[in-house]
Amino acid sequence: QKMDQRICIKFCVKNKIKCANAFRMLTVTYGEATLDRSNVYRWYKMFSEGREDVNDEERAGRPSTSTTDENIDEVKKIVLANRRITVREVAEDLNISIGSCHSIFTNDLGMRRVAAKFVPKLREFLAKNNTLMMPQPPYSSDLAPCDFFLFSKLKRPMKGRRYATIEEIKTASKEELNKITKNDFLVTDALRIERKLHSMTDLGHLLESELRIASNQRKRNEQGHSNDPSKPDVPQGTERVSHPLTSKKTQ
């Protein structure tokens, strides 16, 4: 497909089709296997400058031993087994450079990282299995403050490590959790309480006014007085309080 696309690019140059339109046509025809934009523009420029050969030029020095048919097949097998694996992890598994591994992904296998395409498939799977999705903001501290606090405590020390089995992940997680001190929990709780108190203080005056109004309303109902808001019947000696959300004042 790589050679076919270069021939298509050459055809577009000969017919004076703009590079942007050529790239769009390739995307429609080859989909995810389309060469990346930079490669399309590079070959378009070379063909515009008079190049005729669509094959790669031989490079001086030691030939690359990483981009082999065997490595290409191995990369394909690894990715099909685990689509969430990174280029770096594949390169480490095969003991090749990241650049060579990336070249195999893009040029030889025509793969790209498009996370959005997995979303519809996931939704179809959940709907097919009658799985209820609960709408909630991800990583929201008001859902489970304790869990939110522990996420960072686990992610920072475990970042960059690789685990062969689920048991290794569980063991490493327990080790990191055991390192969390009592003071860490106290500090986190104190900060959370401080935020809550700050929010309550901001609403304090409004809450107090609402409670007063509700209390006066309840007294009037018990005494059988009229509930007409234009003629409030407030007992003598009781301070008249206006509703904080209205501009009309009690006469």
UniProtKB/TrEMBL annotation:
Alphabetically ordered keywords of this record: Methyltransferase, Transferase
GO MF annotation terms: methyltransferase activity; nucleic acid binding
InterPro entries in the record: Mos1_HTH, RNaseH_sf, Transposase-MT_Hybrid
GO biological process, one term: methylation
Residue ranges with Basic and acidic residues bias: 219-231
Domain Mos1 transposase HTH per the UniProt entry, residue ranges: 3-50
Region feature (Disordered): 216-251
Protein name in UniProt: SETMR methyltransferase
Annotated organism of origin: Acromyrmex charruanus
Gene name for this UniProt entry: Setmar_101
